[in-house]
Amino acid sequence: MPTDSVAGPPRLFIDTHTHLADARYADLDWVLRRARAAGVEQVVAIGTNAADSTEVVALCKKHPGVFAAVGVHPNEAPESFDADWDRVVGLAAAEGVVAIGETGLDRYWKKTPFDLQRDRFTRHLELAAACDLPVVIHSRDCMRDVIDHLAALALPIRGVLHSFTGNSDEARDLVALGLHLSFAGMITFANKALDSLREAAATVPLDRLLVETDSPYLAPVPHRGECNEPAFVAHTALKLAEIRGLDSAVLASATTRNARELFRLPADQTLEARPPIH
Questions:
Q1: Distance of CA 46 to CAs 56, 73, 122, Å?
Q2: CB 249: neighbour CB atoms within 10 A?
Q3: Between vectors from CA 257 to CA 189 and to CA 233, what angle results, nearest 5°?
Q4: Neighbours of 214 (CB within 10 A)
Q5: 140 phi-psi bin (left φ>0, alpha ψ -120 to 50, beta other)
Q6: What residues in the chain have per-residue pLDDT under 50?
Q7: Do residues 259 and 26 lie in contact, with contact meaning Cβ atoms separated by under 8 Å?
Q8: What distance in Å separates the CA atoms of residue 89 and residue 54, rounded to the nearest whole number?
Q9: Whole-number Å distance between alpha carbons of 181 and 36
C-alpha cells in the first residue's frame, strides 16, 4: 500500500469540481495559491445557475488554470429556470468553458418536481452534445434514475458523474454508458456505511477516474468540518490511491491525464506558481 502523505513533494492534480463563485472564497487569490502549493495545477469551476455561471466564466479570464462549467443545478427554483437557461446557452461558447453543468437529478431535496428535473437534464445533455462539450452530472438519492434516463436517450454521452456515491453495479453501468466517475472527500470518511463506495472506487477503470473537492462542501479527512478548498483534493487522491493499491504518483498522473482529455484542458494553462499566503 502507498505510504505517501501530502507533506512530501506535491503530486500534480486537477480539481474537477469546485464552486469558486461561493461567497466563502472572499479572497480567491489565497485559495488558488494554496491549491498550487499543494500540487493542484488546474481547476474546473462549476456553475449552478446563470449568475454564478457568469461569474465562473469571468474567473477564467482573471485566473490562469481556472476553467468553467455552465449550467443550472436541478435544485434551482423552477420559476427562474427559463431566464437562467437562455443565459447559460449564451455562455456555452464563452472562452474558458469546458463543460455543461452542473445538471442531473435529485430526490433528496424537493425544490423542483422530478418530471421537470428530467426535462432540464435532457436540455443540458442536448446542449452539451450540440456544443461537443462534456456534461457534469449531479445525482443524489437517485443514481438508478440517472442511469435509466441516460440509457433511454439517443444521444452521445461524454461527461462525468461528479461526487459519485453509488455502488459497484452502478459504477459499472455508468462507465458502460461512457461516463467518467469522480470521487470526492467522502471516500476518506471513517463511516462504515461508505464501504460500498470505497469498494466501487476500487473497480472503476483507471482511465475513467477523476478526483474533486466539490468545495466548499465535503472536506476530506483530516479537514472534515472545515470549509473545503481545491488544495484538499490531494487528500482525496491519496486515499483513492490507497484504496486501489497504487502509488500516489500513478494515481495523480492518471486522474490528471483523464481530466485533461475529458475537458480538453490545455496543459500549458495552469494555476500561477506563487507561494501561498498564510
A1: 7, 10, 19
A2: 14
A3: 25
A4: 24
A5: beta
A6: 1-5, 7, 9
A7: no
A8: 11
A9: 24
How many residues comprise the chain? Answer: 278
pLDDT digits (tens, 9 = 90+) for 63-86: 999 999 999 999 987 777 888 999
Distances (CA, A) of 106 to 38, 161, 230: 33, 13, 24
Q: What are phi and psi of 24, to 5 degrees?
A: -70, -15
Residue 116 burial (CB count, 10 A) = 12
Amino acid occupying residue 187: I
- Residue in this structure with the C-alpha cell 437557461, named with its chain if needed: 85
Local structure of residue 106 (DSSP, 8 states):
E
The domain defined by 13-263 folds into TIM Barrel (3.20.20)
Q: Rounded distance, CA 232 to CA 210, Å?
A: 14
Residue ranges with strand state E in the chain:
13-18, 40-46, 66-70, 97-106, 135-140, 159-161, 179-183, 209-211
Query: What residue spans of 63-113 are helical by DSSP H?
Result: 81-91
Q: Which three cell numbers stand for residue 8?
A: 512530501
- Report pLDDT digits (tens) over 195-249: 999 999 999 999 999 999 999 999 999 999 999 999 999 999 999 999 999 999 9
What SS3 class is residue 240? helix
Note the pTM of the prediction, 2 decimals.
0.94
- Measured CA to CA, the distance from residue 138 to residue 116 in angstroms comes to 15
Residue whose C-alpha is closest to residue 53's, from 81, 30, 32 = 81
- Grid coordinates representing 64 are 490562469
Please report, for the chain, the start and end positions of each structural domain, with discontinuous segments joined by +.
13-263
Q: In this structure, are residues 39 and 234 in contact, taking their beta carbons and an 8 Å threshold?
A: yes
